[in-house]
Model the fold of this input.
Amino acid sequence: MILLRQDPLSGEWVSLNAERQTRPLTQAKACPFCPGDNTEVGHTTFDVAVFDNKFPAFQFPGTAEVVIYSPRHHDDLAYLPTDYAQLVWQVWKERSEALQKRNDVKSVFIFENRGAKVGASIAHPHGQIYAYPYWPPRLAKERAHFESHCPMCLPGEGDGSVLYENRWWRIEVPFAMRMPFQLWLRPVRHIAFLGGLTQEEILSGASLMQDIVRSYDSYFGLRTALVMALYQDIATGSPYHLRWDFLPIDRGQGKIKYLAGSELAMGAFVVDMTPEFVKEELAPLWARIHQEPE
Ligand SMILES: [Zn+2]
Ligand SMILES: [Zn+2]
Done:
């Protein structure tokens, strides 16, 4: 039984699953996301696979899908050959377009929980797609700010924190960052959802996404636990401007950013650094990344 409830105090929607299933323990030894007839993927060969999550932590009248980035158990999206990462982007784009056509879907959220610290229970490289029958609270709030003009296209105070920019994408530290070392990867062109991306934008975006995650790994000196989240709006004619948000939890060996009282109870984020600091810290890495021959 899936319950969709609107909080009478805040108006925010939540999904409650009364029949949460957990993966059978017998599967604990074999990876359910590796190729094979008897795994959850159900195919012996594939490059990138998408299927309905059979044991979603979260469920609703929309869908919850799993995207397996590679058949190889020890791969990592950030370190895959770039043409493979481009294929993953192509899949994200196609799923966004397919789910957009459904009447019961209002919002398509693509994300990856990278590392056990942010809840990835299976090591095999994968991400998820949630198709919500409502606008999740954060997106609902943001949409309202795009109605009269695009706050991302207007020149503003945040422009000082651009880490890298090419013809298609800009990487910046958000002006009002909510997490330490948070980064945005957003198209230069004003576009609301992945379905509208050109082939060139996909090629460039896929490799920049890899650069961002690699730059964290190199800066923190570990495989960074992070959430990578796509903010997009599938509504026809939406004035929204899409972006990828990178939210690292790790801040170095043994250092983790926990969400605590202010964030969890009030939704008020407290960050002990500025975007200028993040730019200064990461800029030398970016200079190095883009000196390397293509
Ligand atoms: Zn596996
Ligand atoms: Zn814009």
Observations:
- The pocket of zinc ion (ligand 1) is lined by residues 31, 33-34, 73, 124 (CB under 6 Å).
- The mean pLDDT is 89.
- Helices lie at 82-100, 137-144, 199-220, 261-266, 275-289.
